[in-house]
TrEMBL record, chains A, B:
<keyword id="KW-0805">Transcription regulation</keyword>
<dbReference type="InterPro" id="IPR028082">
    <property type="entry name" value="Peripla_BP_I"/>
</dbReference>
<dbReference type="GO" id="GO:0003700">
    <property type="term" value="F:DNA-binding transcription factor activity"/>
</dbReference>
<feature type="domain" description="HTH lacI-type">
    <location>
        <begin position="13"/>
        <end position="67"/>
    </location>
</feature>
<dbReference type="GO" id="GO:0000976">
    <property type="term" value="F:transcription cis-regulatory region binding"/>
</dbReference>
<feature type="domain" description="HTH cro/C1-type">
    <location>
        <begin position="14"/>
        <end position="40"/>
    </location>
</feature>
<dbReference type="InterPro" id="IPR001387">
    <property type="entry name" value="Cro/C1-type_HTH"/>
</dbReference>
<dbReference type="Pfam" id="PF13377">
    <property type="entry name" value="Peripla_BP_3"/>
</dbReference>
<dbReference type="InterPro" id="IPR046335">
    <property type="entry name" value="LacI/GalR-like_sensor"/>
</dbReference>
<dbReference type="InterPro" id="IPR010982">
    <property type="entry name" value="Lambda_DNA-bd_dom_sf"/>
</dbReference>
<keyword id="KW-0804">Transcription</keyword>
<dbReference type="InterPro" id="IPR000843">
    <property type="entry name" value="HTH_LacI"/>
</dbReference>
<protein>
    <submittedName>
        <fullName>LacI family transcriptional regulator</fullName>
    </submittedName>
</protein>
<keyword id="KW-0238">DNA-binding</keyword>
<dbReference type="Pfam" id="PF00356">
    <property type="entry name" value="LacI"/>
</dbReference>
Amino acid sequence: MSEVLRSAVNRSTTLEDVARVAGVSRATVSRVINGIRNVDPAIQESVRLAIASTGYVPNGAARSLVTRRAGSLALVVSGSGAEADGPAGGEVFTDPFFGRVVSGVFQALRPQGLHPVLMLADAPEAREQALAYLRQGNADGAMVVSTHAEDPMPALLLEAGVPAVLFGRPDRPLPISCVDLANRDGGRLAADHLHARGCRRVVTIAGPSGVRAARDRLAGFHDAMARHGLPYLPHAEADFTQAGGERAITRLLIEHPDTDGVFAANDLMAQGALAVLRDHGRRVPEDVAVVGFDDSSAATAGRPLLTTVRQPVEEMAAEMTRILLDHIARPERGATSVIFEPSLVVRQSA
Amino acid sequence: MSEVLRSAVNRSTTLEDVARVAGVSRATVSRVINGIRNVDPAIQESVRLAIASTGYVPNGAARSLVTRRAGSLALVVSGSGAEADGPAGGEVFTDPFFGRVVSGVFQALRPQGLHPVLMLADAPEAREQALAYLRQGNADGAMVVSTHAEDPMPALLLEAGVPAVLFGRPDRPLPISCVDLANRDGGRLAADHLHARGCRRVVTIAGPSGVRAARDRLAGFHDAMARHGLPYLPHAEADFTQAGGERAITRLLIEHPDTDGVFAANDLMAQGALAVLRDHGRRVPEDVAVVGFDDSSAATAGRPLLTTVRQPVEEMAAEMTRILLDHIARPERGATSVIFEPSLVVRQSA
DNA sequence: AGCATCTGGGAGAGCGCTCTATCCATCAAA
DNA sequence: TTTGATGGATAGAGCGCTCTCCCAGATGCT
């Protein structure tokens, strides 16, 4: 009796225990649990009973050890290591963009019963930590959101043989899967709209030049504007934050007081522009039209409601997750990339 | 030779391999890696060399199996299962509150080299999944952010013997650790400020009545206002979202057009109020003063800048994490709770 | 010198699970 | 009856690691 008690206290119940109670072998219990091969219905029932009566819970580590599956995926928020630009450290998580990515990842992961483990690799040390974690097989694959084009993470993952999918194309082509937005098209959409509205003295608030998406949005915008006969546009670079947007528009307004249109490379910066324009007594959209990018919650947070280029972040993140799951299930397949099309959402600001 | 090649392809290198290369035993290599007990510096060096030359990476699952440590903590976003109120599903992640929690968790986790695994337990099925994952020992403990007071998760975790810490006190007292804000004090702070400003026809936008924090904020506000001689205040309930705040204030303004002060139980709803007040041509703070709650990014996103009651979410989340780590390290210790004090941040809106 | 203590290292027993190889009935076909 | 199949269950060999013994040699003390 004391033996029983002691073991009940010290050890948690194992397959062995369940097998003993059910009067079958360990292997049979395992088969019932994993639902493979034919097991006599009567025995199945008695095993189930034994599981319930013992309160048995399989041990994840032991299972992982033999199946070589961790049962979790990593969501890596990765920076350059220098972070000269872009929001640093924990601030990344405050960006509505991050929440939308998580949301999309969950949409795709939920049916599979998997959970994402979050990793922040914004400094060399943190990156090594994350990489070690992944190499040890603590996660079956990685989804990477880079905040910087020079991010070495994708290449390192590739080298380590960790299945990975990127949110956003890498700067230099790599044989690695990714989802991305046709950012140039998005810039074009914004340009066409502002031009059609009659804006002729347009400025742009660019994202960090180290971020490919930011460059592409600006390039698309400038190309389209050039086609409309406006080849030279003043622009200021900011860090994708609202405060950065405020500083950028302030500078632009001093240098170009007659501005009648603003394109910001994301909604947060556009919102900063809106706030400063209001401080300066400019009416939006009457005096100055403003177009943002993303269609995040920031777009509808204030007044006027922001006209913006929609990036379907949730869908993109869900697709990223699905691609990763597919890579894990069928490692032999090559890299694939899916490019989403942006769309213009016209609200009040332009 | 073919034997060597095959094993190099099929299996990843193990401790055994490293030991063979270094000419020592498995145990010694393990000791070097984990840095325990004295190992001759010369041997240490040769082991390190062998590790480098073989590209050895320890197997996390095998280690977990014997140490009974997963090396990760769960961050559970948990709902009631019904979700009659409060933001549902993936929307939780869009709330700036969530980002701040994640940020705080990372602050505390980073020095430990641990990573949080995210779990969404908003429906009974998802809750079971999450619970199973935790019981299997895939995480060493759980941090729980409940979106509803009736949330059964805390009690279930307690029952399962999973170390856990809550963000926000449970509705009914449980022997479980938590961090929380003195929400009543926060409500009082807002009331005193509005009253001192001269507001006498004040309305409140409450959070979901199923959320304890929301009730406490409102109660604190009402108590203080009653002490100031204003015992009856109109209020409307909303769901902590901006859209909900907009609906609530719209209703309140119809019923009480002479309103001169608004207290919202969080910044998102306050921002909704700001937007609608602007649509109605009311000036803030001249005609109507508005006080929010949280001091999230939403408070400084628009204009006027929001006067709000600050909740130090990041610090609270970091503390929650530290408490959990402590519980895991010293399971014998009892539950502790840490209550943070709110503070008023006066900006433009009141 | 004799005994106790300490230090550095090895052998090997598990941790709890999966899964292959194997075995034993049972039953259809030759 | 013999010979295979075949369904249903078992035994047992690992998966890769940690950690408790255990041992040999060096050191300290009386």
